[in-house]
TrEMBL record:
One of its GO terms (molecular function) is methyltransferase activity. Keywords: Methyltransferase, Transferase. It comes from the Bacteria. SUPFAM superfamilies: S-adenosyl-L-methionine-dependent methyltransferases (SSF53335). This is Class I SAM-dependent methyltransferase. InterPro entries: SAM-dependent_MTases_sf. The keyword Transferase applies. The keyword Kinase does not apply. GO terms for biological process: methylation.
Amino acid sequence: MNLREIILGAPKKRELMACDMETVVKHDGRGIDFTPDIHKGVKVCRDILTSDEGLVYNRRWLLERIQEFGLAYQDWSLLEHFNHWRNTSHFGLQQFPTEFADFLILLARIAPKNGVEIGVWRGASSYVMCAVLQRITPEYQHTMIDIADGVFAFEEFSDILNLKKAIPSTSTDFRGQEFDFVFIDADHSYDGATTDYLNLGRYAKKIVAFHDIHAHEYDHLNGGTVRTWREFKAANATTMSILEFAHSPVPWMGIGVGIKQ
């Protein structure tokens, strides 16, 4: 299998949302009860919130928390080194673990007071990001935007996290609003990702981030997220610090960050 086949064969996030939403109350699309994975995730977030001072800056400790929280079940060969981190259900993180850990440490150091995530899927990334940022800034508020409510266990996590669920909605509904932190991970077409940046990302007061900056499986969508990220870097390199977290053995996933000076 060549590189192109590997990249194009990587499943897209929405493919894992094919389960009947009536059964999502307790089971995912494979008929697996996700309740144990939810309980585990809540425990991890509570452990982060009550952790000793400075632990959220410790990469090894964060990776251990990410492993305990678990990755959403998938069969992606590019994550085979983390197969033992998978949950049995489709609830869990859809992130390259080491990329996400380094990104979380950066976020913790910047310490935004509020943030918005455009495209939240099951909510797992929202929960972990909010826990880390709330540990640094207890009043931190995290707004979750998506076009459809596929979020798992919002009530359980919102009992301990400062979460606001704005679903169904899009970035257009929040156009021009200012948040300290904006995370773009929704429509992976060039036009969709760029619109999310123009609606909210460019108004971020401290940091704007994009997921899937090397996800070439979306290149057919007018250049996809790869093109959006490339153009963002070209337009903002003189006014922002630009960082990339890209750890896959071949170009895939990746988190791109612009930090305002």
